[in-house]
Amino acid sequence: MRNELLSPAEMAEADRLAIAAGPLDGYGLMQRAGEAVAAIVLARYPGAMRVHVLCGPGNNGGDGYVVARLLAEAGVDVALWASGEPRTGSDAALAAADCTLERHPLSAFTAEAGSLVVDAIYGAGLSKPLSGDAKGAVDIVTGMNLPVVAIDLPSGVSDDSGEVLGSAFRAVVTVTFARKKPGHLLLPGRERCGEIVLADIGIREEIIDQVAPRTFENRPGLWIATFPAPAVDAHKYKRGHTSVFSGGPSATGAARLSALAAARSGAGAVTVLSPANAMHVNAAHLTSIMLRKVDAVEDVHDLIGDRRPSSFVLGPGFGIGDKARDFTLAMLAKNRQDGAVEGLVLDADGITSFRNATATLFEAAGRPDAPALIMTPHEGEFGRLFADIAADTALSKLAKAREAARRASAVIVYKGADSVIASPDGRAAINGNGAPWLATAGSGDVLAGIIAGLLAQGMPAFEAACAGVWIHAEAGSRFGPGLIAEDLPLAIVPVLRELTGSAAR
Ligand SMILES: NC(=O)C1=CN([C@@H]2O[C@H](COP(=O)(O)OP(=O)(O)OC[C@H]3O[C@@H](n4cnc5c(N)ncnc54)[C@H](OP(=O)(O)O)[C@@H]3O)[C@@H](O)[C@H]2O)[C@@H](O)CC1
Ligand SMILES: Nc1ncnc2c1ncn2[C@@H]1O[C@H](COP(=O)(O)OP(=O)(O)O)[C@@H](O)[C@H]1O
Ligand SMILES: [K+]
Q: Where do the annotations place (6S)-NADPHX binding (predicted)?
């Protein structure tokens, strides 16, 4: 599996373990890194008039010296620009010594139209905002719109958070090593990387296993092993029963979108739970989806006793207040072991309702036998439940989601163009297959329904949340322009078909 993402500390650890295990030493790894980048440059830009290689003082610059030497040996016209001297005895110093091209100071950097830039100024070691010569080079290259091949990361992009520190290159291709880093997927970093090429530099799988990363790119490989497929002897309730709470008469659509998505995602039975005064509105719009009156907490208990739904969605269009809190806490008070309630997806108004009662919610979710709680906040909703975490500028979106999941004892789906899914056990995944077509009213309601549908079919909470986010994003990206939320439940069908095929293999 190559879905792991390495933090800077984990990458350094992998590097250290790989060197200790041999056969390559640090300079050997650097040579492999440089070879990979040079091969990409030669393959992608065979006609480049001139290649400017920009080297910083650290090992990212070291990779750059290797690239400059190899490109020159291949007959390319290379101009080498350096900022700072590699530390004596470092691998970068060895690489610089082996590169006999004339070195120009980066402060004098100029380039010509039609040339290509290899960015080896800073990578994993970026420690402060770009300034001086490095910033000047970014301005020149950006102003001339020259194509950039970035080594490891575009200089200025933090590998940990994806933030742009000061300014950063915008690469056409970024070549990174062993595994991707969070900054390749989190915004705005993802946008600055262009296409990301992962190069094998000889850090073997068992080294990554030893490092045991807890952060992943959200791709099917992460959860396909638990992706549900109906058994031959399935009946509808065996395939899972999802219930979705509806709002009042003028706010029923969101629940129906969730319900339809849960049904499409494979839950065998889906029920909309409606207040009495909205029964007629809901009834007029439901066919295969069942409808049941739920007005008070007793109705929730009766439903759980009678119909044994395995998952719930509460929040879309529901309204903010006591009722949302009481229903949520009633569900969380059930025991999972009884087979009663597997889990609850709390979205939208459901989340906002706990703005001033977070401790009650987190305590209920943290009870050992409690059903799984999955919360799906967008940025605004996240800030309502986790104001201090949201305001902490030292934390990346990844770190924020992880901390929130731990505090709330809940799986957190921190939505957006770079959705992060975090589990209270420390695992986290970053999603990268979305598209802005998904930014349409009701899209989040559909996501909540897909996750609940997967949960009802027995998928564990973190995996169900990851799969839901990926499937939702994939369907929206493939559909493209014109997408509205009503399209999404049907648009997930071809995606599910492919996943079911691959799960069967
Ligand atoms: N790990 C591996 O397996 C492999 C890693 N490899 C490569 O190594 C790279 C990481 O190397 P690295 O750790 O030496 O860091 P790097 O990015 O070169 O920068 C550090 C230097 O820059 C300086 N500096 C930073 N920001 C600055 C700023 N804004 N303005 C000014 N100065 C700034 C910083 O100064 P300091 O923070 O110490 O003051 C320090 O001197 C990695 O990205 C990959 O390409 C490959 O060889 C394959 C194997
Ligand atoms: N620019 C974007 N790129 C990819 N996905 C996006 C983008 N904007 C929004 N989304 C996704 O669309 C969904 C919107 O959900 P939400 O904000 O709850 O909307 P609504 O309340 O209208 O349903 C989320 O899954 C989010 O991750
Ligand atoms: K770089």
A: 59-63, 123-129, 152, 254, 317, 378, 445
